[in-house]
Amino acid sequence: MPTVLRGSDNMDSAKAFGQNQTWQDKTASRVAKTQYLNDTGKPITVIISFNVVAGAATSVYMYVDGVKIISVTDTTQDYASTFTIVVPNGSTYEYYDQSTTSPIQRWFELR
Predict the structure, then answer these.
(1) CA-wise closest residue to 64 among 80, 44, 50
(2) Domains assigned to the chain
(3) CA dist 45 → 2, 7, 18, 23, 89 (Å)
(4) Among residues 23, 39, 51, which one has the least CA distance to residue 111?
(5) How far is Cα 92 from Cα 94, in angstroms, rounded to an integer?
(6) What average pLDDT does the structure give for the chain?
(7) Cα 17–106–22 angle (5° rounding)?
């Protein structure tokens, strides 16, 4: 089925989400409790996978522009999870956990 754009059909595809963006493994360069800025000129997608050991990390959060948008809390059992967020251009984002050792397994960004 053809795509129909309403209004102006002069869309700049270079600015479209996903266009001219690639998945980048940021696992080695990203850490918890650090605020990062999306200054790419486009929204980005951030995917973080983590494994939590009971008692080692009681809460795990994601923030965008200082607003807690994801929260997982479980002190009774081990668990694995993945956060996926879209970060608007010009916004800050931060992964936060209450852990003595980082539960982050992988951190990827489409940017």
Answers:
(1) 44
(2) 21-110 (3.90.209.20)
(3) 26, 27, 9, 9, 11
(4) 23
(5) 7
(6) 86
(7) 25
DSSP string for 56-71: TEEEEEEEETTEEEEE
Q: What is the pLDDT of residue 10?
A: 65
Output the six-digit token pair for 75. 């002190």
Residues 62-89 have pLDDT tens digits of 999 999 999 988 767 788 889 999 999 9
Helix, strand, coil share (%) of the chain residues, nearest 5:
5, 50, 50
pTM, two decimals, is: 0.81
11: which 2 tokens?
Answer: 């869309």
Pair 72, 60: CB distance under 8 Å: yes
Which residues make Cβ contacts (< 8 Å) with residue 7, sequence separation at least 6?
Answer: none
Q: What is the largest CA-CA distance in the chain?
A: 55
Find, among 98, 108, 91, 106, the residue nearest to 71 by Cα: 98
